[in-house]
Design brief:
Blueprint: H1 2-8, H2 10-18, H3 20-28, H4 35-48, H5 51-57, H6 77-94, H7 102-120, H8 137-147, H9 154-183, H10 190-205, H11 212-222, H12 228-260, H13 276-288, H14 294-318, H15 327-335, H16 346-364, E1 379-383, E2 395-398, E3 408-412, H17 425-432, H18 437-446, H19 452-456, H20 460-476, H21 483-507, H22 513-524, H23 528-540, H24 547-566, H25 572-580, H26 587-607
Parallel strand pairs: 1-3
Antiparallel strand pairs: 2-3
Helix pairs in contact: 1-2, 2-3, 4-6, 6-7, 9-12, 10-12, 11-12, 14-21, 16-17, 17-20, 17-21, 20-21, 20-24, 21-22, 22-23, 24-26
Length: about 600
C-alpha cells in the first residue's frame, strides 16, 4: 500500500515516513489534514476495487505488484451499490473543508461536480445498454485483454490465463444487471441485439487457436524470454480456458439475448424508455457539462451545418467541382475520384498507418510556438483490431500507461478503405494525437502536485472540445495548407455539427435510425459504412456526440474573450497553458479559470 501511495498519494507517503499515527489519521479520518490525502485515498479505494482500471493505468507493475492482473472487475449490481455509498461518504468529508487555497478549491469543486451529478442521477443508473455493438461488455473484454494486459514473464501469462477463467463470473454478474434493466423496461433496440448476437455467435464459433484471446497471447509470449516449451504450455492452457470458460461465458449472453430479442422494438431513441426524457437530459448534462436543452443543441447544430457547408462549397467550386446540384452531389463527385484513396490491399493499409505516423511526427516537431507544455509520452498509430472494425468508429485514442510502459495509441479503422480519404487524414491525426487527445490526456496524466482525480477527470466536452479545437489550431499554424486538407478540416467540424442534429433528433425529436442515417449521409459526404456505425453509436451512447462542438465553441469563445481583453498582451501558448494545466474541467470551471487569468494579466499590466 505504501508503494501505491507513493504513486498517487505522495502527501500520504510523506506523512507515513514522518509519523505512522498521523498517516493512519490521513487514511481513516473523515477529514484528513490535507484535502489531497482525502481525494487520493478515496480514488485509491475505488481503484483497488477495479483490477481492470489498475491494469489500464499500469503503474503497479513497475513496483512488482501484479496480483490484480489475475482478476476482472465485479460487474454485479451490489458492486455499484457500494460505489454509491462511497460517493455519499466522500461528499460528507468534502463538506468539512472550508477556506481552501485556490488550487485546492478547484480540486474540491471538480470532485463535487462529479459527486453531485452521480447522486442526482442515481435513479437513472440503469438507463444504458451494457452489451452493445460499440463498447459492450462482450467486445470490451477481448479488447482489454489484447490492448491492456501486458505479458513480459511467466507470472503475467499465468495472470492472463486466470482472467480467461474469471470471465464467466463477470458475465454472470453482468446478467443480473441486464435482468434488472429488462424488468424496468430498459431493453435495447432490436438492431442492437441483432448486432451483438451476430458478433458473439461468430466469436464462439471461432476455433480457440484462432481466437484473438489466443493469438494475442501468442504474440505477447513471443516477445518474452520464456522457452518455446513454456510458451506452448501457456498457449495450451489458454486454448483450454477459452473452450471451458470463455465460450460458455459468451453462451450465457447469447442465450439471454436470444430470448430477449422478441421483446425489443425498433424505436431507437431514449424517449421511448420509461423516464427516457429525463435520462436523455441527464446524458446531455453529463457530456456537455452544461444545462443546454435538446432543442437548443438541435438549433445550434442546424446553424453550424449551414455555415460549414457554405465554406466547403467555396473550396469545392475552386477545385473545379460542379456545386450547382448541391452539397451532397458535390461531395459525392469528390468522393468518387479514386486518387483520394489508398489501394484496397494490405500494403495500402500499411501505408495509411505509416502516413498517419509521419503526419503526427511533422506537427509534433513544428508547434513549439503555440505550446509551452508538452507531454513526455509518445504516441503510436495502430489499426483497430479487425474482429471489431466493422462496427467500430473511424478512430479512437487510448491513453499511455502512467509508468511509461505503453505509449499513447491512435487506433485507425481500416475496414472500409473509402472511409479514409487522403484529404481527411491530417485532421483525424491532429484530433486523435497531436495536438489533440494525446497532448491533452498525456499532459493531464503527467501533471505534478494534483490529486489523481484531477489527472483523470472524465469531462467529455472539455476533452473532445479540445481535440476539435486542436484541429483548428493546426490549420491556423499552416499544417493544412492544401485546399483539400482544409476541406477535410471543415468536413470534420461539419461532422460534429451534424452530430448535434442527429443525436437530439434520435433521442428527443423521435427520429428513426433510418432518418438519422439519411440526414448524416446527405449532409457530410461520409462513406455510408461510417454513417451507419456513427448513428448506431449515438443510439447506444446518448448525448456523447454533442460534447465535441459544445466544447470547441466554448474554448474558442474563451480565446476570443482573452484576445479582446488582453490585446497585445495576449499570448497563444500562455492561453493554452491555462486550458491544459489543470486537467479536464467542466466548462463552467474552465471559464472561471480563464477569467482569473485575464484578471491577473490585467493587474500585472496595470502595475507595470
Amino acid at each position: 500500500m505504501k508503494k501505491l501511495l507513493k504513486i498517487v498519494g505522495g502527501s500520504l507517503l510523506t506523512v507515513t515516513v514522518a509519523a505512522g499515527g498521523f498517516a493512519a489519521h490521513e487514511w481513516y479520518a473523515d477529514k484528513p489534514v490535507f484535502l489531497r490525502s482525502l481525494l487520493d485515498r478515496e480514488l485509491i479505494k475505488v481503484g483497488m476495487q477495479s483490477p481492470e482500471t489498475l491494469t489500464s493505468l499500469g503503474f503497479l507493475e513497475s513496483l512488482g505488484i501484479k496480483g490484480h492482473n489475475a482478476e476482472l472487475d465485479d460487474a454485479s449490481p451490489e458492486s455499484a451499490d457500494k460505489l454509491y455509498q462511497q460517493i455519499r461518504d466522500l461528499k460528507y468529508s468534502l463538506s468539512l473543508y472550508d477556506n481552501l487555497p485556490v488550487d485546492q478549491q478547484l480540486s474540491a469543486d471538480v470532485t463535487n461536480y462529479l459527486l453531485d451529478y452521480a447522486l442526482e442521477t442515481e435513479a437513472l443508473r440503469y438507463h444504458n445498454y451494457p452489451v452493445n455493438q460499440l463498447f459492450g461488455l462482450q467486445n470490451g473484454y477481448p479488447t482489454f485483454m489484447d490492448a491492456q494486459h501486458l505479458v513480459t514473464d511467466a507470472e503475467d501469462a499465468d495472470n492472463y490465463n486466470a482472467r480467461l477463467q474469471a470471465v464467466k463470473t463477470k458475465f454472470t454478474q453482468a446478467l443480473q444487471g441486464l435482468t434488472l434493466r429488462e424488468q424496468k423496461g430498459i431493453i435495447p433496440p432490436r438492431f442492437v441485439i441483432d448486432r451483438v448476437l451476430d458478433e458473439m455467435t461468430a466469436f464462439v464459433a471461432t476455433p480457440a487457436s484462432d481466437n484473438i484471446l489466443y493469438t494475442s497471447l501468442a504474440t505477447k509470449l513471443a516477445d518474452t524470454e520464456l522457452t518455446e516449451a513454456e510458451q506452448q504450455q501457456q498457449l495450451a492452457t489458454a486454448a483450454s480456458n477459452i473452450e471451458q470458460w470463455v465460450y460458455p461465458a459468451y453462451q450465457l449472453l447469447i442465450d439471454y439475448f436470444t430470448e430477449l430479442a422478441p421483446k425489443a422494438g425498433n424505436d431507437d431513441g431514449f424517449w421511448h424508455l420509461p423516464n427516457g426524457e429525463a435520462a436523455y437530459a441527464a446524458s446531455l448534462k453529463l457530456f456537455t457539462t452544461t444545462d443546454y436543452t435538446p432543442d437548443q443543441i438541435h438549433q445550434l447544430g442546424l446553424s453550424e451545418v449551414a455555415r460549414l457547408q457554405a465554406e466547403m462549397m467555396q473550396i469545392l467550386a475552386a477545385e473545379g467541382i460542379d456545386i450547382e446540384p448541391g452539397f451532397t452531389a458535390a461531395m459525392a463527385e469528390l468522393a468518387a475520384d479514386p486518387k483520394h484513396y489508398y489501394p484496397d490491399t494490405d500494403e495500402g493499409r500499411a501505408q495509411i498507418l505509416a502516413d498517419y505516423q509521419a503526419i503526427i511526427d511533422e506537427i509534433d516537431a513544428g508547434i513549439d510556438s503555440a505550446f509551452n507544455i508538452r507531454p513526455k509520452a509518445t504516441v503510436e498509430v495502430l489499426r483497430i483490431p479487425e474482429f471489431k472494425e466493422k462496427t467500430a468508429p473511424g478512430a479512437y485514442y487510448q491513453q499511455p500507461a502512467l509508468d511509461g510502459s505503453r505509449p499513447g495509441r491512435f487506433y485507425a479503422n481500416l475496414w472500409d478503405i473509402k472511409a479514409t480519404p487522403k484529404y481527411g487524414m491530417r485532421t483525424l491525426a491532429y484530433h486523435e494525437a497531436v495536438p489533440g487527445h494525446h497532448f491533452q490526456v498525456a499532459i493531464s496524466m503527467e501533471l505534478e502536485g494534483l490529486p489523481f482525480i484531477r489527472k483523470m477527470s472524465p469531462f467529455t466536452a472539455y476533452v473532445e472540445g479540445w481535440a476539435l479545437y486542436a484541429e483548428q489550431v493546426a490549420w491556423e499554424m499552416g499544417f493544412q495548407s492544401e485546399p483539400l486538407d482544409n476541406l477535410g478540416r471543415l468536413g470534420g467540424e461539419l461532422f460534429r455539427a451534424v452530430r448535434l442534429v442527429v443525436d437530439t433528433g434520435i433521442h428527443h425529436k423521435r427520429w428513426t435510425r433510418e432518418q438519422a442515417i439519411e440526414y448524416m449521409a446527405a449532409n457530410t459526404g461520409m462513406a455510408q459504412s461510417d454513417v451507419v456505425s456513427e448513428i448506431e453509436r449515438y443510439i447506444v451512447m446518448p448525448g456523447q456526440a454533442t460534447a465535441y462542438k459544445v466544447g470547441m465553441i466554448k474554448i474558442l469563445e474563451l480565446r476570443e474573450r482573452s484576445q479582446q481583453a488582453l490585446g497585445d498582451d495576449f499570448d497563444l501558448a500562455e492561453f493554452h497553458d491555462v486550458i491544459l494545466k489543470d486537467g479536464a474541467l467542466p466548462l463552467s470551471l474552465l471559464e472561471r479559470n480563464v477569467e482569473r487569468y485575464i484578471a491577473g494579466k490585467n493587474q500585472l499590466a496595470a502595475k507595470s
